[in-house]
Amino acid sequence: MSPEAARLLLDWYAANRRILPWREDPTPYHVWLSEIMLQQTRVEAVKNYYRRFLETLPDIPALAAAPEEVYLKLWEGLGYYSRVRNLHRAAEKVMADYGGELPHTASALKQLPGIGDYTAAAIASIAYGEPVPAVDGNLLRVYARLALYRDNIKDRKAFLAAHSFYGDAIPAGEAGAFNQALMDLGAMVCLPNAAPRCDVCPLRDHCGAHREGAERSLPVMPEKKERRVVERTVFLIRSGSRTAIQKRPDRGLLAGMYEFPGAEKKLSREEAAAWLKKNGVPALRIRELPFAKHVFTHREWHMTGYEVLVGSADEDRVPYIMAENSEITEQYSVPSAFAAYMKELTV
């Protein structure tokens, strides 16, 4: 990218930048938290989570000292829960090894759990001014079009090429603004799943794809793998205002979170009754619930649900945690995969 193109980009950003809460007070902690939240998540969805998280855990010492239930509950609904676990682990390490202050360089930041090339560069450039490009999917897409890059954009060599392309163009003293300008260009103009808005792009006269009319054919993406479908059965085992929940294993998908009991396969009504009996649940009545689906990155859960009523006299025999519905919604961290069944608690 030429110095002229970089200046056009920064001038455009000054006039058109998105007003985002973490940008208005870009402390290292704020930048770090927002960048972790924004991984795999839309900006609009993040805003309220960001505010709520900071209200409870306003700084690194508070995050490092927070119990698991607190930070998992604050993250509930954002998905990809390993992000917040790594955020907490990194905060503990920052307190132990760095006196509570995030390292100032991308290379040092990458030594913390959950911080890779992009996040390290974003924090280092925005919070500390280090001249390093923050190359993510947005910047790779913009690079492919600007530089007419026709190879697989997901390949490591594409990242290295983009890193060099942008790194050579960062104006002195403006690394944070430069990276954020590219982020906004990718989000607002050089769009991923629609025709890019070349008519309002400040770099259209510097863009190889625009020059050759190849905007819609770039970047070149690898073929997506089909998601694996996993059949599950979910039980809402209820007694009065209480419903059964259990904690998931400490490792693996949705580790350490709470869920409704169930089977790792689809059960008919008769099979469900047999499963409940085998697992010690004294069911008085079974009612079928609507089918529900949840999509993860590499798999889909197809869920058959049943509401199971248990008499108050038999509640102590249920081999799960019988929690008040209000506690489940307000205190326990239940992943959004069970959102359809969480709604039943308020019915």
What does this structure look like?
The protein is of the alpha+beta class and 347 residues long. It folds into 2 domains: 3-217, Hypothetical protein, domain 2 (Endonuclease III, domain 1); 228-346, Nucleoside Triphosphate Pyrophosphohydrolase. It is built from 16 helices and 7 strands. Strands 1, 2, 3, 4, 5, 6 and 7 form a 7-stranded mixed β-sheet that branches. A hairpin with a 3-residue loop joins strand 5 and strand 6 (299-309). Helix 3 (28-38) packs antiparallel against helix 9 and helix 10 (137-146) crosses helix 12 (175-188). The longest helix is centred in the N-terminal third of the chain and has 16 residues, at 82-97.
End-to-end distance: 57 Å
Q: By helix and strand content, what is the structural category?
A: alpha+beta
- Write down the overall geometry: elongated
Largest sheet: 7 strands, mixed
Task: State the domain count.
Answer: 2
Number of helical stretches of at least 4 residues: 16
Number of strands: 7
What value does the Rg take, in angstroms? 24 Å
Summarize the helix and strand pattern as letters: HHHHHHHHHHHHHEEEEHEEEHH
Tell me the CATH topology of the largest domain.
Endonuclease III, domain 1
Key features of this structure:
single chain; 347 residues; alpha+beta; Endonuclease III, domain 1; Nucleoside Triphosphate Pyrophosphohydrolase; 7-stranded mixed β-sheet; 16 helices
